[in-house]
Amino acid sequence: MAGSRSTNYVDSDDCLLEYSYLFSPDLLRGKVAFITGGGSGIGFRIAEIFMRHGCNVAIGSRNTSRVEIAAKKLVQVTGGRCLSLCMDVRHVDEVSSAVEETVASLGLIDILVNNAAGNFLCPASSLSSKGFRTVMEIDTLGTFNTTKAVYERCFKQARGGIVVNLTATLGLRGQVMQVHAGCAKAAIDAMTRHLAVEWGPDAVRVNSLAPGPIEETEGMRRLGGSWARSAGLFQKLPLGRAGSKLDVAHAALFLASPAADYITGITLLVDGGSWLTTPNAFPDILPSAKL
Ligand code: NAP
Ligand code: COA
């Protein structure tokens, strides 16, 4: 299947030029997925891989042209259906309208991927209350808003459904300059466990997927990826490389598939062992930082 590749991967995401199936091409045939932040980066690749496996997909974020352009590329390359939606996960009414539009256009949602997030590097001492709140609202509250809306409209009364929450390993060892995102993602991991317990009887599976450093993403660009690469940090990881968007998309596909039918309430780390060995303190990361 053909696609085009831009030289500026962060500003313009493109579909894979080549794809070899690892799973059955019909793995998600006839399913409907709703992916927040699906117009770029990891969310875009998850949308592509889901569509390549027969899923119809809705992608939603704040930037209308971004999701419209992404949807066109996804349809062109995979031949599936993709709906683009303008929404801010912080606003309950926008989320509800997007869910309604998806149901009207593609049918009831089977799979929700909470991928939308905001982040930046900032030492706690320089971080304002508003900065902390902004990240908590996009990541944690946004995940709650979207999950609640999809559950109420599509999953409850034992119809069932699948939730995959994109989190991170930041809070596991307390990464510097990441107190906002580490707390927001840890709260989502807790939400995963709470909802897995509460909604299991409705046949709803809820899991988190925590990527490590992923090449060619906005997250990597913002969080010191170039520095880590030039410092040779990725070669020192247990698996000796940074991850790819495809690594994450395949893990999301697994969690969203019947192969994971007895898996709920977990956080699946897709990080090549990175959290075990990556430096997480100022002297290692910023030798010049004043403590
Ligand atoms: P990205 O391309 O910037 O993806 C974030 C997406 O979220 C964007 O499409 C953005 O679109 C959307 N978004 C942001 N705020 C929103 C809001 N208020 N409402 C709706 N949509 C919103 O970044 P990425 O690197 O691919 O990250 C994807 C996910 O993986 C995130 O959850 C991130 O925390 C996680 N992660 C990434 C890495 C990594 O190495 N990249 C590592 C660990 C975890 P708009 O701007 O159009 O709204
Ligand atoms: N350092 C410290 N604080 C920052 C900051 C930075 N680099 N960027 C934003 N903030 C804080 C500030 O307190 C800011 O308020 P102020 O401008 O009044 O001081 C507050 O966050 C809100 O910023 P704003 O730009 O108004 O928020 P927004 O809702 O428009 O955007 C962000 C949210 C800041 C997270 C923005 O970077 C974004 O949209 N990110 C999405 C993409 C992304 O982060 N991808 C990577 C995912 S891992």
Characterization of this structure:
The structure is a single chain. This protein is of the alpha/beta class. The chain has one domain: 3-Layer(aba) Sandwich (Rossmann fold). The protein has eleven helices and seven strands. The protein has a seven-stranded parallel beta sheet, sandwiched between helices. The protein starts with 31 loop residues before the first strand and ends in a 6-residue tail after the last helix.
Give the count of structural domains.
1
Task: Measure the end-to-end span.
Answer: 52 Å
Q: Oligomerization state of this entry?
A: single chain
What amount of the residues lies in strands?
5-15%
Main beta-sheet annotation: 7 strands, parallel
Instruction: Provide the gyration radius in Å.
Output: 18 Å
What is the H/E order?
EHEHEHEHEHHEHHHEHH
CATH architecture: 3-Layer(aba) Sandwich
CATH fourth-tier homologous superfamily: NAD(P)-binding Rossmann-like Domain
Strand order of the largest sheet: 3-2-1-4-5-6-7
| CATH class assignment | Alpha Beta
